[in-house]
Amino acid sequence: MEFSELIRTGQAQAELLRGPEAPPLRGTLCVTGHHLLLSPGPQATPDLWLLLLRSVDSIEKRVAGDCGTITLRCKDLRVLQLDIEGVEATLNIARSIEGLRLGDAWHFHPPERYYKRVARETNAWRLSEANEDFSLCPSYPRAVIVPRAVNDDALALTARFRQGGRFPVLSYHHAPSRTVLLRSSQPLIGPQKRRCAEDEALLRAVLAGSRPGARGFIVDTRSAQTAKQARMTGGGTEAKAAYPGWKRLHRPLERGRPLQESFVHLVEACGDLEQSMDHWLSRLAGCRWLAHVKEALSTACLAAQGMEREGACILVHGAEGTDSTLVVTSLAQLILDPSSRTMAGFQELVEREWIQAGHPFQLRCAHSAFSHARPKHEAPTFLLFLDCVWQLGRQFPLSLEFGEGMLLALFDHAYASPFGTFLCNSEQERCLCEVRTRTHSLWSGLNQLKEQRKLRNPLYVPNPLALWPSVEPQSLRLWQGLFLRWTRPPEPSEAAWEKVWQIVTDQEKTEGSQPTVSASELQL
Amino acid sequence: MEHIRTTKVEQVKLLDRFSSSNKALTGTLYLTATHLLFIDFHQKETWILHHHIASVEKLALTTSGCPLVIQCKNFRTVHFIVPRERDCHDIYNSLLQLSKQAKYEDLYAFSYNPKQNDSERLRGWQLIDLAEEYQRMGVPNSNWQLSDANRDYKICETYPKELYVPRIASKPIIVGSSKFRSKGRFPVLSYYHQSKEAAICRCSQPLSGFSARCLEDEHLLQAISKANPANHYMYVVDTRPRLNAMANRAAGKGYENEDNYSNIRFQFVGIENIHVMRSSLQRLLEVSGSRGLSVGDLYSGLQSSGWLRHVQAVLGAAVVLAKAVTTESASVLVHCSDGWDRTSQVCSLGSLLLDPYYRTVRGFMVLIEKDWISFGHKFSERCGHLDGDPKEVSPVFTQFLECVWHLTEQFPQAFEFNEAFLLQIHEHIHSCQFGNFIGNCQKEREELKLKEKTYSLWPFLLEDRVKYLNPLYQPQAQEFAVLEPNTVSFNFKFWRNMYHQFDRTLHPRQSVFNIIANMNEQNKQLENDIKDLESQIKQCKNKQADGVLTKELLNSVRPESPTLKTSLCFKEQTLLPGNDALRTIDSSNPADNRYSEYAEEFSKPDPAVVSLEYGVARMTC
Hints:
The structure holds two protein chains of two kinds. Chain A has 19 helices and 14 strands. By secondary structure, chain A is an alpha+beta fold. In chain A, the strands form three sheets. Chain A has a seven-stranded antiparallel beta sheet with strand order 4-3-2-1-7-6-5, covered by helices on one side. Chain A has a five-stranded mixed beta sheet with strand order 10-11-14-12-13, sandwiched between helices. In chain A, strands 8-9 form a two-stranded antiparallel ribbon. In chain A, helix 8 (289-308) packs across helix 9 (324-336). Chain A is globular. In chain A, 47% of the residues are buried. By secondary structure, chain B is of the alpha+beta class. Chain B contains 24 helices and 14 strands. In chain B, helix 4 packs across helix 5 (215-226) and helix 9 (307-328) crosses helix 13. Classes of the chains: A alpha+beta, B alpha+beta. Chains A and B meet through helix 7, helix 8 and helix 19 of A and helix 8, helix 9, helix 19, helix 21 and helix 22 of B.
């Protein structure tokens, strides 16, 4: 319920006047995220009166004695009057409607809400404000979630032991197996093999707070070789002896310039309409994009499998912990967590695991595939994530509430957007630039009703199970909808999609016509 | 029967084809007269028809038993481990015998009995009537007529009896032309486009050598071009690569010399021959079937096999045909060497692009009957129905189906049938369960008395029609009247659902098609319910107008409304099993997916964790 914070009073007794002709309706008034409901008592007609909050054009409240009146003027020119019992209730409902009608989207997906829930559910984690002024870690948000057993002073020391201050924080709590997914950056072991007692204590506390006897896995997104070499520049990876209970796995994922080059080569290949089949296939193989997709997906599956099947806690990091790490943690959540596959849940996931988690969008998405400038910090990490999600959606076409349109929109907006959501590289920068007050949120744009047909998957059926995709090369496809969006005629597939929508809405319509038939029966 | 020595072997293991950790199912193997059957300990049955077996291989003995690898023509690959070598040897020998029959009469179709009586069987065979089809196209007409020249297969053994030729082409011309064409396959009508008055004709290569001419043949071609009042120019499309056609000249065959024929435009479209296609597909299957395949391996294998390039060439040729007919109203004559492989592919695909009828379930059957079966595509040789020359085997028809699949992918709303239909047809060209694809030409089929001794596939497919329908089909859409596919390279993809149709772990876990098809059905049913109810309401209203209506009548309407309720419930009930079936594959076992050898890595440090084998059934809800 992303709107729940805006709802001050959920329910009140009220009478609805719908104009001089219609009889008044009495019943319980409810405010939900999108609608105003009036449910009459059991004795009257079973019909529910519904009003979409977005259709409210203006709202007016008056209080007299111990009851109040709210007048709603709607965009379709209707005027409705609600008489509500209780002054407090009236004011609260009016304020709720006001807030929801405008949809203050900057409050849509604060990660704190998720963290608070985890802290409440597990009792082993707490929300820390140690990073309130971004002094511990400039790329983390103000609120982070850490083991309850670790105090803020220890956090400060741990932060000094991790590159960019990115100490291990919770990314996802898998309630059924009572295990957690963590992310961080590499430890600053250095050539002298430094250690940090607080860092070790933190990871120990993670295991202690999980189910008894839980083990941990550290998924390093670099090869063992690279991780070892990183010691020369002050980085490195966790030493086995220092972290009992934790086992390290290396799953090298491509990042940085090679990933950008892969993207550039793929887009080049996709732009050539005249090439022979052999040339096309060899370029497709040569750019290695799908190989990167396969690696990213299987590493995410590994992490998810470790949590769900092995009951292990997983810590994911590479070097900075702002790129491949996020691909893995966010995909693992999509695989395991049904709620992250809904429209709202996915937006929350992107907000929490990418934007708030400090993926440097400004640097990574400064140029796309056509720029002649030498890439410095550009890398299509976020696109790689979106591609993996698309592959997941292809293999489980009914299990994601959002469709390809949503992924395309996110891609477009990450690279250029009239909204402020993807601006800057971290929460700190966004605060400095006053992004929230000076721009609009993408989520408010995407959640407008007229956008829904483009973004939603009409066939969505909630699927409570984990989605284990096949990562065999035969099962992975080039994302034509993105890479060939402008080079192939979209008409036939768009028309087919339109037809799917039509069938689905027809179904809703025919199923919905039962009341109209009974209504005409009543008129007899 | 005499080939079967062992009918049942217990404790046989069925290995997962792609698993790196040799995951296996244990069960019992049965050998029947027609099938090899494996029942695993979940009681799941795997049936393999003997005729589907392409090769059986016995590998070197291992500690767990004797491995037996069976490759099937429908691209199923099974890997058994039989505990005792003697059993393995017996089964191996039996399968070698059973999978290769020497005589047509030993094929499954001659013993298959679906419990139909003779009149039903006959009606099944009469379901597709080609005379009716030519009538639908608009022939005979003032320019085209039915010729009885081949009545007793005298002129051409591999053609059907009924052939349509230009009205002005006399019998001597036909006979003369047939003598100048390889295997006597002279130019005849394959498809007539009524509104453009243009024809697609087919034949085999001329016996022109370096300089030979044949006046009758030249006359016949001229007659074809004259039969088209809209455009006197006619295209002659040689589907072979230029080099192959030139090489044929040395053997006294070759291609038309443009100087000898008036009003023709000659062109090559460069489709490779059956031998190239056979090894190309073989290479493709080797690559896609290998364990631990990387993305790079797959795509470079796709490239080196050349398979998609060949598919592109075939479809490209069909586009040339369709363009000539639609934009220039020109007639086209198509040939290759013998005119029964590439010619069948190109003519049938060309017609498919031009005529929406062939994109319906029934129309597609007609198309296969016309351009493939009746015009003598050598199904028995190409599919290796009998123990014969392995050099004659080639996936020409499979390639045609793949071209059609690519069209369905590009035009998801233009086809009445779905992928399952194509797969089912492919299954049966090899199964020899029905008579349609047995034999190499109509003459041979008549001699085998197939219509009396076997059954036709088509009525059985029509019976299951619902399974093969495309829920997105838009029959009336104008933009799909003529399909203009884009043959740019990236529109061609590996057809996983064909070449890995039995490797379930590679497939999407949920089917959009099923869901939409279900919804479509429901919608229709509900709409009917609404109509019923509305008409009942109307009746009641009328009665009310007559002043008869009282409360009782109104009540009599009310009880009707439960019909809708029950039908809704009914709908839900009928739907649920379907949903359940889907559910079971909604999510799969991570162990199935081989994310790598991680499973072992996970269990290494802690020996307490032994089993990662979670049954899929346990995960279903």
